[in-house]
Design goal:
The chain has 194 residues and is of the alpha/beta class. It has one domain: Rossmann fold (3-Layer(aba) Sandwich). Helix content is 36%, strand content 21%. The chain contains six helices and seven strands; from the N terminus they run βαβββαββαβααα. Strands 2-3-4-1-5-7-6 form a seven-stranded mixed β-sheet. The radius of gyration is 15 Å and the shape is globular. GO terms for molecular function: peptidyl-tRNA hydrolase activity; tRNA binding. It catalyses: an N-acyl-L-alpha-aminoacyl-tRNA + H2O = an N-acyl-L-amino acid + a tRNA + H(+). One of its GO terms (biological process) is rescue of stalled ribosome. It comes from Nocardioides cavernaquae.
Length: 194
């Protein structure tokens, strides 16, 4: 772990109201919950490339910067790199929250490092940070039904049934982020990777 006591928590998604309810935007939903817990709202960062919330998730805990890039998912690495440089955060203090096709809907997995598995947001982050060695909080969305294209699936709204369960998944993911920062990877995986 780096000496930095600042964590950069990135909610991956696409900006704007037309994308708000999409499966690809679960990272935004989780950062909304975390911002609420910090008692603050997203504001434009000096770089102009992201919206951020700065604060602490626990009294006396480390500083946390919640971030959402102001660009499309596949270009999010640039703004993340700019924020990491600005706040002097090493990759081992970066957490990306994202949708994951290979995990069933409603399921959560937390890990350190790995490939991008075809996820454009992760690919962009790996490329810009020069490493994949950052934490990932992976919110399962499952595979598309039938022959639906993956791109169409991730850029579609949750089903009616999923919408009822979604708040629980989002709260779980927010809890996972808090646990990761407070207690480390092993305890977080034991609790959430069930």
């Amino acid at each position: 772990m780096s000496e930095s006591d600042v964590w950069l928590v990135v909610g991956l998604g696409n900006p704007g109201p037309s994308y708000a309810g999409h499966r690809h935007n679960v990272g935004y939903l989780v950062t909304d919950v975390l911002a609420e817990r910090m008692g603050s709202k997203f504001k434009s960062h000096k770089t102009g490339r992201a919206d951020v919330v700065e604060g602490r998730l626990q009294p006396g805990g480390p500083r946390v910067v919640l971030a959402r890039a102001r660009c499309y998912m596949n270009e999010s690495g640039g703004p993340v790199k700019a924020l990491a440089s600005f706040y002097k955060v090493e990759p081992d203090h970066v957490i990306a929250i994202h949708d994951e096709l290979d995990i069933a809907f409603g399921t959560l997995r937390v890990k350190l490092g790995g490939g991008d598995n075809g996820h454009n947001g992760l690919r962009s982050m790996r490329s810009s940070l020069g490493t994949g060695d950052f934490f990932r909080v992976r919110a399962g969305i499952g595979r598309p039904p039938g022959r639906q294209e993956v791109a169409d699936f991730v850029l579609s709204n949750y089903s009616t049934v999923e919408k009822k369960e979604l708040p629980f998944q989002v709260i779980d993911a927010a809890d996972g982020v808090e646990c990761l920062i407070a207690e480390g990877l092993e305890k977080t995986q034991q609790r959430f990777n069930s």
